[in-house]
Amino acid sequence: MHIPALLQFLVELHDNNTKSWFLHNKPHYDILRSEFVELVADVSNRIQQFDVELGPVDAKKALFRIYRDVRFTKDKAPFKNHMGAVIGARTTDKTKPVYYFHVDHKGALLVACGMYTPDKESHKKIRDALVAQPKKFNAAIHDKTFIKVYGGLSDENRMTRPPKGYANDLALIEHIKNRHFICVISASLANKPPKNVAAWIASQCKAAYPLVKWLRDVTSVKP
Hints:
- The protein is α+β, with helices and mostly antiparallel strands.
- It is built from 8 helices and 4 strands.
- The protein has a 4-stranded antiparallel beta sheet with strand order 1-2-3-4.
- Strand 2 (98-104) and strand 3 (108-115) form a beta hairpin.
- Helix 1 crosses helix 2 (19-50), helix 2 packs across helix 8 (197-219) and helix 6 crosses helix 8.
- The relative contact order is 0.15.
C-alpha cells in the first residue's frame, strides 16, 4: 500500500468533496482501493494466525463504501474522508465482535476492536455475563498487553444511570452502563508511520483479542 498516495488523495477529497471531482479522480481511487484490499487481506491473514475462530475473510467485502449515506444528516458531503474496513462480521451485523481499522485525511490510522452498539439481545447477554462472570471479563480487560496497548475499555457514550434491571451496587456496574464494548488506538501515518502497516494493525488486533474472544463467547450463548 502506497500510504503517501492514499493520504494525498484523502486530503484532496476532503477539500473537494463533490461528485464531479470524485468522478474525475475515480481511476486514481480505484488503484488505491485495490491496494487497500491487499492491505485488508494481509491484515486478515495475520489475525487468523491468533484468532482461529475468525473464519474466512473476503477482503473486498470487508471494505466500507466510500459513499456516505446523507439521507438523515445535515452534512450532505457525498464521500467519506477516510478509507476503512471491518474484519469479522459484516457491517450491518451487530451480534458479533469485529476488528476495524481506517485511515483518514489527517493521516490517522485508527484501530477499534469489539462491539459498537450491539443489538438489544447481544447487549443483554453481555450485561448478564458481566453480572454472572465478572472474573472472566476482568481477566480479559486486565490482560497485560491489552492494558499496555489500549489502557482499558472505551467509555464512549457511557450511560449516566444503570440500565433498567441492574442494581447500582453491582461490581461491574460502570461497564454495565456501556453502550459500546470497544477498545481504540490510533497512530499517525503522517508523522511516524509504522514500518509495516499491516503488521502494526494486526498487532493491535492481537492485543484486543482477549476482549474479542470474551465478547464472542458470551454473545454466542443460546438464550
